Amino acid sequence: RPIATHAFWWPHAPIDGLHAGARLAVALPRPAVVRWGVDGWQRVAEAPTRDSGLGFQLAVLEVADLPAGGRVDFTWHWQEDGSWQGRDYSVAVLPADAG
Fold first, then answer.
1. Alpha helix ranges (H) inside the chain
2. Is the separation of the CB atoms in 90 and 51 below 8 Å?
3. Cα(85)–Cα(99) distance, rounded to whole angstroms?
4. Beta strands per DSSP E along the chain
5. CA distance linking residue 35 with residue 76, whole number of Å
């Protein structure tokens, strides 16, 4: 069975977990900057979205090095006006072989 290299999170279809070794792809309807951290907002970084060419914006969070049991925390602000999403989201890192 192929191993997914990306896990996609959408506002209308959020995921609760991604497999260790995968990157988290945050898909948004318009340009934004995703602010993210790990395990309770440690190692905070920002990732601007890019146009996917498919009608949505995408920010890929480089979290493939996180071990199972970790967590990715994120939120975003919109590029056009700087307003924040207003809430935080969290995605758990699952064992790579979890079904």
1. none
2. no
3. 31
4. 6-9, 17-19, 23-28, 32-38, 42-48, 50-51, 57-61, 71-78, 89-94
5. 6
pTM of the model: 0.92
Q: What does the block give as tokens for 17?
A: 């977990």
The closest of 69, 6, 73 to 35, measured between CA atoms, is 73
Rounded to whole angstroms, the Cα distance separating 48 from 37 reads 14
**What distance in Å separates the CA atoms of residue 80 and residue 32, rounded to the nearest whole number?**
8
Residues 58-99: pLDDT tens digits? 999 999 999 999 999 999 999 999 999 999 999 999 998 765
